[in-house]
Automatic annotation (TrEMBL):
<dbReference type="InterPro" id="IPR002563">
    <property type="entry name" value="Flavin_Rdtase-like_dom"/>
</dbReference>
<protein>
    <submittedName>
        <fullName>Flavin reductase family protein</fullName>
        <ecNumber>1.-.-.-</ecNumber>
    </submittedName>
</protein>
<dbReference type="InterPro" id="IPR050268">
    <property type="entry name" value="NADH-dep_flavin_reductase"/>
</dbReference>
<dbReference type="InterPro" id="IPR012349">
    <property type="entry name" value="Split_barrel_FMN-bd"/>
</dbReference>
<keyword id="KW-0560">Oxidoreductase</keyword>
<feature type="domain" description="Flavin reductase like">
    <location>
        <begin position="10"/>
        <end position="150"/>
    </location>
</feature>
<dbReference type="Pfam" id="PF01613">
    <property type="entry name" value="Flavin_Reduct"/>
</dbReference>
<dbReference type="GO" id="GO:0016491">
    <property type="term" value="F:oxidoreductase activity"/>
</dbReference>
Length: 157
């Protein structure tokens, strides 16, 4: 199989959209990612996957902390900003939790310290021990077949 077939198959898995943030040298940095999952309840662990060519890789390694910001359906532009998809240059609307930059108004800000790393293929998995969480109500921004979306309204019978 070729790379395109593999990518198309992986695109069939609908995900939420996150922005991974960290502080490096007193500056906030972030990147859009959908490779995120919870790993363990005890200890509370999550994992994010960062490509070897991503500038964020060394920033998280050096800072030892990161936040996973789960975006709401109103935050597609935020995702596009951190994915480098917006033409105009803008500043992100960030806050801090325990000294780690977080996206304002995200559904969840999950602040972590690096618990461990694992190089896998052309990515590094950062396992984060959750130190703090901020939650808000709302619906998630989704990503499916390379496109942003929203959850459909469902009616219980």
């Amino acid at each position: 199989m070729d790379d395109r077939t593999f990518r198309n198959a992986m695109g069939k898995f609908a995900t939420g959209v996150t922005v991974i943030t960290t502080d490096h040298g007193g500056e906030s940095h972030g990147m859009t990612a959908n490779a995120f999952m919870s790993v363990s309840l005890n200890p509370r662990l999550v994992v994010v996957s960062i490509g070897e060519k991503a500038r964020m890789l060394e920033k998280i390694r050096e800072s030892g902390k990161f936040a996973v910001n789960i975006l709401s359906e109103q935050q597609q532009e935020v995702s596009m900003l951190f994915a480098g998809q917006l033409k105009e240059k803008r500043e992100a609307d960030l806050d801090t939790v325990q000294g780690v930059p977080v996206v304002k108004d995200a559904l969840a800000n999950v602040v972590c310290k690096v618990y461990g790393t694992q190089i896998v293929g052309d990515h590094t998995l950062f396992i984060g021990e959750v130190e703090d969480i901020v939650l808000r109500d709302g619906k998630p921004l989704t990503f499916y077949e390379g496109k942003y979306g929203k959850l459909a309204e469902t009616q219980l019978i």
